[in-house]
User: Which sequence fits this backbone?
């Protein structure tokens, strides 16, 4: 899974995230955790737009490479932190998967899916995305 490093900082309005390797891609949040989760959505959208336009995706730099960047070093010295943010892209085609899961948990998933008005697949996909985004 590809990950980009974001700079997370705080001001009087909350927390912001920018990506040195994804110019113009920004996200906000009331908390640091919310900003990072929103950053994952913004990054996926930003990359999706690039791909939709037929543009190349800039490769993410490593933390070591970013630390040599004077602007990044300045932002870190002023209190920003680095966060690793996953790229979660939809490729536009479904794939079948055969999984084993506890029968009780599957019943709970099906009940929650019905209550939310979504399919089991949509529910599990959303849960997986949320779990991956919360790994930061």
Assistant:
């Amino acid at each position: 899974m590809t990950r980009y490093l974001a700079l997370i900082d705080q001001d009087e309005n909350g927390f912001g995230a920018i990506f040195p390797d994804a110019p113009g891609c920004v996200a906000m949040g009331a908390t640091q955790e919310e900003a990072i989760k929103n950053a994952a959505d913004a990054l996926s959208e930003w990359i999706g737009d690039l791909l939709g336009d037929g543009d190349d995706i800039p490769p993410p730099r490593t933390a070591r490479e970013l630390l040599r960047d004077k602007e990044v070093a300045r932002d870190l010295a002023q209190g920003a932190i680095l966060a690793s943010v996953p790229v979660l892209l939809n490729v536009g085609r479904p794939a079948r998967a055969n999984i084993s899961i506890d029968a009780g948990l599957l019943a709970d998933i099906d009940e929650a899916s019905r209550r939310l008005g979504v399919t089991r697949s949509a529910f599990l996909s959303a849960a997986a995305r949320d779990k991956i985004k919360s790994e930061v």
